[in-house]
Amino acid sequence: MSTTGLVGSVQHRDTGRETRASIVLDGHGLTAEDVVRVSLRQNTSVELAETAAARMVRSRQLKLELLDTGQPVYGVTTGFGASADRQISVDKAAELQRNMMRFLRNGTGPPATPEICRATLLIRANCLARGNSGVRPLIVERLLDLLRHDVLPMVPERGSVGASGDLVPLGHLAAPLIGEGEILYRGSVRPASEVLAELGLGPIELEAKDSLALVNGTSFSAAFAALAVVRAAELAAFAETATALACEALEGNRGHFAAFLHESKPHPGQVASARRITELLSGSQLALEHGQVVGLSTVLGERGYQRLNRSVQDRYSVRCAPHVIGVLRDTVDWARHWIETEINSSNDNPLFDTDTGTVHSGGNFYGGHLALAMDALKVAVANVADLLDRQLALLVDDKFNNGLTAGLVAPFGEDDWAAGLHHGFKGMQLACSAVTAEALKTSTPAGVFSRSTGAHNQDKVSMSPIAARDACTVVDLTREVTAIHLLAACQAVDLRGTELMGPRTRRVHELVRTLAPFTAIDRPMDGDIKALLGAMRDGSLLRAGAAEGARKNRPAGATSARPATVHMTSDL
Fold first, then answer.
1. What InterPro entries does the database record attribute to this sequence (predicted)?
2. 74 catalytic per annotation
3. Cβ count near 279 (within 10 Å)
4. What average pLDDT does range 553-566 have in this prediction?
């Protein structure tokens, strides 16, 4: 346990060559970024705060005192769910908990990724550290032991309706604590009992309430949600970078992003998005200020009509980009707040109030806030995918791309043998459209699909794990859309002349060209997409587009999307 007294925050320890972060769990101060750091094993240790351990001891003592009175306590000396009217004697309580850990292990589908398992272990430990669940500090310490040794339970993704919490996946997650189930350790799936014996971690003898405290909560849903919201914040910045490049490629009007316009409709995300696109386009000779666009045409004078040399207004997918991306930025802000409330809550049942000496049965396991946050987030993210797909459609279509070639093919003379043989980014646009359609389809809200379960005890449920898993999927799909868009936009500005780009967009172009060459003739580009997705994951893409001072001073892993944002170095 920690003796530092630093609770609910991150402590940085100088180890000589690098800084090691220490997250101290107290049930109150865990952040979404903390969850991501631990999920990716980014040089971060996790400890239980002394104050939290003391609260847990008091809560457990109250539980034991209440059991001595002989009164029924839900899930402790009664059955679960619809069996709450069946009381058992105290001497049966431990066996009841062991049976619960077993009858819930029936999940289906693919196993959750290591990132999700680590995130879930951390969140469940933090929720129990709040000290209202009646369990010993040993329970949290063993969850942290699994994290420290990277012993990851095999947890099927499917089987939870989000109330009473994530019972089935958390049943699989908790099984190694009693030496059961399978785990992933050093690349191999093995029986938990074997690995824990090697590590000197014997099975825990369960007490009354222990299993219920471990499985009756929202931590599996919250793990997906925390990772989704951090990645969605990055997507907003990626989309702004892509929009700036598209605006240059289309010889657009950067006056659409003027501060006056967006401060006149001051949604914070919209204002921030317009500001960042403006900064990215600063100095561009391709995307001009409104006055410069107007100045390209002669004064109408006495004439009654003329065709302008350049339109004074771009299509919606460029002009309204801050309005679309701004919705995502603002959705991320409130969704993050809801998620961080959830991961710092006591969300099992029942809970023990040590101030009054009472036990309370309730429904904090209900994942409604997570479900709505994720349903909203995936809609906002999918709209960004659609925005970028529409921009790409303009780039590749010579009816709308303001003089670029059809499909962004390299120009060939009519007498050149290659003339008419190549289609450039036509196939990329087709793939992007398919990925976008999948993102839009997957954005269907899950929280409205409540199903009555458990003999109609759980007759209204949240569907939070499905909403959160879908949100992660939509984020991944939208990153693929963004990668294809950026490759096409860089091809387009090559055709325009990169010397006319703004300094910041030019650095983005230079980075892309280190990963993917100009497409002079038709060739497979799936490798280009993968390379660019890697630059999105490791943070190099956003660093390339950052202001010069920020690029020099920015620590590794930070982005311009949000201070100290953690980059996702592994896909879900």
1. Aromatic_Lyase, Fumarase/histidase_N, L-Aspartase-like
2. yes
3. 17
4. 37
